[in-house]
Each structure stands twice: as C-alpha cells, then as structure tokens.
Design goal:
- The protein has about 220 residues and is of the alpha/beta class.
- The chain contains eleven helices and eight strands.
- An eight-stranded parallel beta barrel has the order 1-2-3-4-5-6-7-8, surrounded by seven helices.
- Helix 6 packs across helix 8.
- It is globular, with a radius of gyration of 19 Å.
- The structure holds erythose-4-phosphate (E4P).
- The site of erythose-4-phosphate has 11 residues, from helix 7.
C-alpha cells in the first residue's frame, strides 16, 4: 500500500518525506486555504513547489464544476509538472471530464466518492485513482472501510485498473484497516502516519534497554 500525505503544509510534507515512506501528496481547496494560499498563480506555484519536493503523484483539484471549465482547468494543472494528477469531483460533468482526460493522456483522481456505484463510474471513465472518503462516511453512520473493501472487490473481479485511494483518514487504525482490505493507497494526515509509530511497550522496552546498556559500558 502506498502512503500519500493529505495536506498542503510544506513543513508536514517535508517531515513525512524525510521519514522515507512518502509516495505522494493529495491536496484540496480546503487544505490550500488553510495554508493561506490565495489566487491562481500562488496556488499553482504551491503545487509546483510540492511537486519538486516529493517524487510521486501530487493531486491538484479543479474548482470548476462544468465540463468545459474542468477540462480547461485540468489542462493547466497538468501542465504545471509531470507529477500532477488532476483531482475531479464525482459529479456528472466530472465523470465526462475524467473520460476526456483519460482519452487525452491526463491522469485523474476522482474525489468526493462515497459509494461503490460512484466508484464504478470513475473506473469506467478511466480515472487513475478513486478517492472514497472513509472518515466522512463513518461520520454519516456508515462504515467507510467497508466501502473501500467493496470497491476493491469490484475492481478486482471486474479487472478495473483504477487504484483505490482511501481518503479522509482520521486515525492510525483507519490506515491499518485500509491495508487489511487491500487499499492501493492511503492518504493520511501526518498525525495518523506518526501515530503508527507509537506503542507504549516500545517506549517501556527501549527505556529498559538503554538503562541496562549503561551497566555494560
Ligand atoms: C482527499 O483527497 C481529501 O483531501 C481528504 O482526504 C478529505 O479529508 P477530510 O474528510 O478529513 O476533509
């Protein structure tokens, strides 16, 4: 399973990258706004900086919602850097645009996916990635990981090539459960990635080893 970081914060991207386990980055307009990045030029420059920092796929989201606008914007985003994957929302014109991008050699990540039915449409249109939002599915009283499992199962038996990118991760346990059900990628906040490191018995064990090591110095 690949690890992407779900942020537009350069310090966090650097930290995850330096850990040596980072395969890519996902962003969205909310995450860009959180970093105070305003205006198309600033946004595009920020994407370029991220692409130069990380050797992997970087999702950059369109903000248009009509076919012509999505295509226009997606072409500009894709031209920023070869690492860019154009993130397109799961709406009617989004599906149409994903098919257009597929036919024109531009890779896409279909975002805001909450059901297996939506995921089938993404795959039919040729998206490189489908992004089920598991945390938000959990919030609405369903089981997000179960949706990831169902999508993965359908893609496997149907031979769809679209990669399942589990998004809206809220905890280290989400990451573990996504790995269990065969997600191809997990995009996570830094906190959840670092949470995987932690176990109290590791800390207790290490403290004891270091204490005992002093006896043999
Ligand atoms: C995915 O690509 C989205 O950017 C993200 O995972 C959404 O997560 P949230 O539900 O925590 O906003």
């Amino acid at each position: 399973m690949k690890f992407f970081i779900d942020t537009a914060n350069l310090a966090q991207i650097k930290e995850a990258n330096e850990l040596g386990i980072l395969d890519g980055v996902t962003t969205n307009p909310t995450l860009m706004a959180k970093e105070g990045i305003k205006g198309q030029e600033a946004v595009y420059n920020h994407y370029r900086t991220i692409c130069e920092m990380v050797n992997g796929d970087i999702s950059a989201e369109v903000i248009s919602t009509d076919f012509a606008g999505i295509v226009e914007e997606g072409k500009k985003l894709a031209a920023i850097h070869p690492h860019i994957v154009v993130k397109v929302p799961m709406i009617r014109d989004g599906v149409k645009a994903i098919k257009w991008f597929t036919d024109n050699g531009i890779r896409t990540n279909c975002t805001l996916v909450f059901s297996a039915g939506q995921a089938i449409l993404c795959a039919k249109a040729g998206a490189a990635y489908v992004s089920p939002f598991i945390g938000r599915i959990d919030d609405s009283g369903w089981d997000g990981v179960q949706v990831v499992e169902q999508i993965k199962h359908i893609y496997t038996i149907q031979g769809f090539k679209t990669l399942v990118l589990a998004a809206s991760i809220r905890s280290p346990n989400h990451i573990i459960r996504c790995a269990e059900v065969g997600a191809d990628v997990c995009t996570c906040p830094l906190e959840s990635i670092l949470g995987l490191l932690k176990h109290p018995l590791t800390d207790i064990g290490l403290a004891k080893f270091l204490e005992d090591a002093k006896k043999s110095i």
